[in-house]
Design brief:
Radius of gyration: 18 Å
Low-confidence stretches: none
Shape: globular
Distance between the termini: 13 Å
Mean pLDDT: 92
Largest sheet: 7 strands, parallel
CATH topology of the largest domain: Rossmann fold
Helix content: 40-55%
Strand order of the largest sheet: 3-2-4-1-5-6-7
CATH architecture of the largest domain: 3-Layer(aba) Sandwich
Number of helices: 11
Length: about 230
């Protein structure tokens, strides 16, 4: 079965871009072939760190989005779409205009909507809206980003949490990486693999010994969450 993963969260500032980078790096480390589409042409995570795997798409162009399904519907494909903030309207208009979920069933294609969230009310409301839109017709993964929130009580006591449980939606915890280390990785324009494996030298900047170790441990813990899902 082929897989099409839309990774978003709609709200800006939830640290959404870390998740497609993690999925991409995990697949590379596992020698799993994949292709990515990035809807953020200016500074998209896949285009920035995995440009040899990624293609830019314009979310408002139906023709661009059609290319995604043409590729993903081929046998044994693994496709990752990094959704920029505030792309929900265009994406779901496209999904519904051609009933993508019906087509996916006919094409033996698993479509998964990843919702990355912080601990704020907006993230809870946006998740509720996504679940209400597709209900049991779609597959979802809810990601609690611990790097952008420590107390998810607002979600846990909400009707949205009850709906997640009713639908059997898997949830994972994205552990927090030390903010200074993450900032340094981004400043150096390094993938997570490069951050772990490239030492700082006289001619090339990099992470220190403990910084590399922190990233290694963080990746191991994050990968464990992905492996629970079979990703």
């Amino acid at each position: 079965m082929s897989e099409l993963h839309f990774v978003g969260g709609e709200k800006g500032g939830v640290g959404k871009s870390v998740m497609p980078r993690l999925i991409a790096q995990h697949w590379i480390d596992q020698n799993k072939p994949w292709h990515g589409f990035d809807t953020d042409r200016s500074h998209g995570a896949l285009l920035r760190y995995y440009k040899e795997y990624a293609t830019p798409v314009e979310i408002s162009r139906v023709e661009d989005l059609d290319k995604i399904i043409e590729l993903a519907s081929q046998p044994d494909k693994r496709v990752l779409v990094d959704l920029a903030a505030q792309t929900e309207r265009d994406l779901h208009a496209w999904v519904e205009s051609g009933d993508l979920l019906e087509l996916a069933g006919e094409a033996n294609l698993k479509v998964v909507f990843w919702h990355v969230m912080d601990d704020g009310k907006d993230s809870v409301d946006l998740l509720g809206r996504l679940l209400a839109r597709y209900g049991q017709r779609a597959n979802y993964v809810v990601v609690f980003n611990r790097g952008r929130g420590e107390n998810f009580a607002m979600y846990q006591g909400s009707p949205v949490a009850a709906e997640v449980a009713r639908l059997g939606v898997p949830t994972i915890q994205l552990p927090a990486l030390h903010k200074g280390t993450m900032l340094k990785i981004d400043q150096l324009d390094k993938s997570f693999w490069a951050a772990v494996n490239h030492r700082e030298t006289e001619t090339e900047k990099g992470l220190g010994m403990m910084e590399r170790q922190r990233v290694k441990v963080w990746l191991r813990n994050a990968y464990a969450q992905l492996e629970q899902l079979g990703v």
